[in-house]
Amino acid sequence: MTETTGSKTRTRRNGKGLTIERIFTTPGVHPYDQVTWESRDVVQTNWKTGDTIFEQRGVEFPDFWSANASTIVTTKYFRGAVGTDARETGLKQLVDRVVLTYVKAGKEHGYFATDEDAEIFEHELTYALVHQIFSFNSPVWFNVGTQSPQQVSACFILSVDDSMDSILNWYKEEGFIFKGGSGAGLNLSRIRSSKELLSSGGTASGPVSFMRGADASAGTIKSGGATRRAAKMVVLDVDHPDIEEFIDTKAREEDKIRALRDAGFDMDLGGNDIVSVQYQNANNSVRVSDEFMRAVEEEAEFGLTSRKDGSVVTTVDAKHLFTKMAQAAWECADPGIQYDGTINDWHTNPETGRITASNPCSEYMSLDNSSCNLASLNLLKFLREDDTFDVETYQKVAELVITAMDISICFADFPTDPIGETTRNYRQLGIGYANLGALLMATGHGYDSEGGRALAASLTSLLTGAAYKRSAELAGVVGPYNGYARNADAHKRVMRKHQAANDEIRTLHTMDSSVHKAATKAWDAVVKTGEKNGYRNAQASVLAPTGTIGFMMDCDTTGIEPDFSLVKFKKLVGGGSMQIVNQTIPRALNRLGYADETIEAIVEFIAENGHVIDAPGLKPEHYEVFDCAMGARAIRPMGHVRMMAAVQPFLSGAISKTVNLPESATVEDIAEVYLQGWKLGLKALAVYRDNCKVGQPLSDGKADKEKKADEVEAPVEKVVEYRPVRKRLPKRRASQTTSFAVGGAEGYLTAGTYESGDLGELFLKFGKQGSTLAGVMDAFSIAVSIGLQYGVPLETFVEKFTNLRFEPAGMTDDPDVRMAQSIMDYVFRRLALDYLDFETRSFMGIHTAEERARQLETGSYAPLESSSDDEDYEDELENYSQSAATTPAKKAEKKEEIADQSGAGAADARKADAEIHSSAELLEQFQGKVADAPICMTCGTKMRPAGSCYVCEGCGSTSGCS
User: Is 359 a catalytic residue?
Assistant: First the structure.
C-alpha cells in the first residue's frame, strides 16, 4: 500500500503508523550540514582550589553554542573515559547516540507509517536538539545508547508500607535511583506513629525515626556517579499522629546548626561538620486535605488518626497546626505544602489508586511506584524577529517531542520491577518548557501582570493540549496505555476539565489570543480523538526546574521562573568572562516603543546599577516588565503564586517553584501564601525566606570576633590625628568652558585645573544672575571646588551625583551624553569624560560616543591599543575586532554574533571582576549583601535558584532531579 505526500512516495509497512511532518528540515539535506561547526577546548577548574577538575580538548560544537553550554554538555553528558578512543568528542556523537536509539525503537514498535517518516523524525529531532529548541532530561543524555541500563526517567515515586521489610526495601530502592542520576519521593503516612503500639506490645518508632536512616544513605550517594547529590522528597499526611514532630524536624536541626556554628564548627553548606546534622538531604512536605484547610479557616478542631484502624488518636487546633507549619517554614524553608484535594481531583487514574506523593521537586505527581521522563521546550526559540510568536511551529514541536518521549518507554530500563511495571502500564510523561521569564520580558509583559499570566496560561494550555492530541493519535496507532480501560471515564473527565479551564482564559493581546485560539482547537481535537481512540499516556505535562538542560539550551530563565537578575555572568568561548545585560532587555524596550538613544542610556544604567529604578527615560509604568526574582525590584510573593495558579489547570502534574520572600517576611505572610495556594487551586507550594538558613562561611565572622577581642585588650596608645590639607590652585590656571542644554534648559560649565591637568574647581552658570537658582549653583560650585582641593577624588563626586533625578531632564545637545536625568547627572558625566581615566569611568559605565560605537563594532569599549590583565578575555575581543566590518549591516551582524557567544546577549558587556564567578555573586555585588545560596561542591561556584532546586552556572550541577 502506498500513499503520496507532496512529491515523495511513501511505502507503508503495516497500514498503521504516524505520518511525520517536516518542520525545520529540507529533504535531502542532513541537519548537521546546515550548521557551522568549530573545535573547542573544555577545561574546567575549581576556582577556589585552582585544581583542574576536567579537561578535554578539541571537542566539536556548533559555533552558536555558548561556552557554558558546550562546557556543561562535554563534562556532564559525553560518555567514555576521557583520553580514550571510547570518549565522545562532539555534539554529533552525543545526539546520534540518543536520536538513533529513539528512531530504532520507534520502527520496532510500529510508530511510523513508513521508513521515510522514520527518517524525517530522525532529522527533525536532530535539528531541534542541535538548535537548542528543546532538550530531554539529563538521564536520557547519561544513559540512552550506552552499555549502562537505559534509564530515561528523572522523577520517581516510591511507596513504603508499615513493615520492616518494606522500610528496608525503601532504603535500597532509593539508593539505586540516586545511583542512576535521578531523584525519588514517597509518602510515609502508612507507617504507624510513635503514639501507636506494635503487635508485640511495644511502642512504634514512627516515620520520623526511619527518616534518619534514609537521610544518611542519601548523603553518601552522588547521583549519576558524580553528577549531583541525591534528591529526595518525604511527604506526611496532615492527619498523621506524628505530624507535629515531622513539621519541627528540620527547624530543630537548624537550631542545632546555629549552636554548632557559634561553638566554632564548620557549618557552611559545604563545610566539614555539616554532615553531622540530620534530615538535610530531603525536601519535606505536608499533604493537607480540603477538610483540614476548611478547619483552618473555621478555627476548628481536627483529628489525627490511627494508621491501623483510622480511629482518632488525638485532636488538635487546625489553625495552630497550620501556623506551626508556617513557623517552621519561616525558620528553615521546610516543610512545603501539597494540596491533596486538588491533586486527586485532577487524577486520571483514580480507579488504580490515589496520588499520595511527588518527586523531589514536586512537579511529578502520580501513582506509587511510578516514574516520569521529562523534556522541555525553549520558548524563546519560537519568538520571531518581528516579536510575533510562532504558534504553529510550537504546537508541531510539542507533538514531535511527546512522540519521542513515549517511544523512550518502549526501551527504557527501570530501577525496580514495580516501577517498570507501573510506568509501562501508564506511560506517564512530563513535557514542559523553559525561558518563560525571558519570553515575557522580551515581549514587554510583566511577570506579575494580567497580560503575563494570560500569555503563560495560553502557552501552557496549548502545550498540554498538543501533547494529549498526539497521545490520542498514538493510541490509535499503537494502542492506549494498559490501565486506560479501567480509568477511561476518569481520564476523559479530566480532559474536559482542562478544556473548560482553557475556555476560562481571558486574553488581552494579539499574541496570547493567537496562542489561545490554537489551544482551543487542540483541546477540541483531544476530546474528540480521545473519545474514539483513548489515550497513550496517563499524564503528559509538568513544569520542571530545567537546571542543567536549561544551560544546554542557553536559556536565560528556568522553567516557570522569572529572570534571576538583569545582569548576568557569562563565559566566553575563547576564555575569560563578561558581565552582560540580557539581550531581552533592549528587545523589550524596543517593543515598548523607546528610541535607540533612550534604550542605550537605559541599558548602560542597568549595566552600572543592576536594576531599572530611576533609569533615564524609562517610564515607571514599565518597571514591572523588568522585575526579577532577586534584586531591587524583586517580584512579590503573591506574584509568584498567581503565576503558578494561572498555569496549573493546564498541567497533568504540578510546578517546581519556590515562592521567595524577603527576610522581613513574617510567619503570617507565609501562612497567607499557603492559604492562598489552596484557594487558587495549586497542587503544591514551597517557600524560601531570605537568610532563613545557616550557610555562610565562618571565617569572616570568626575573624571579626578575634579582631574585636584584640582591640579590647590592646594597650592605649597615643592618638595621632590626620587632617586633610587644602591644595590651592595657582593664580593663573588653565580652564575650559562647556555650553550645554538639558531638556531644553541651557547652561555653562567652567572647569579649572592644576598644572598636572587634574580638576581643581568648577563653576556652574544656570539661571538668571541674582536669582535663587543661580545663587544655589554658585554655592554648590564652591562646595565641590573646596572638596576637590582638599583631596576628595573626582570619582567620588561622580558616583554621588550621577543618576540624580529631577527636572529639567531628558535629551542633551552633547553627543557623548545623550540623556541626562538632571543637570547634576549631566555635569558630572561630562566631568568624568573630561578628567577621569578610561578604566575608572568605564567601571562606572560612562563612555564617549566613539567608545559606544566601538563596542557595537568589536564587543569592547576599550581602545584597540589598550591592554588587560585577562589575556583570554582580550584574545576573545581581539578576535571580534579582527573580524569586524564597518558597514552598519556588518556591525549588526557582529553584535548578534557576540550575543550568540555570550548565550544571553551583549547589549552592554564589560569584563567581570576577578572575584565574580556566577550571576549570584554578581547580584551580591549590586545589592551589597550576600546571596543566600549554596556553594557548588564540584567547582566552588555559588549556585542560583532553579525551581525548587539550585543550579550551578559553572559546571551545571544541580541539587534537584531534572
Answer: yes
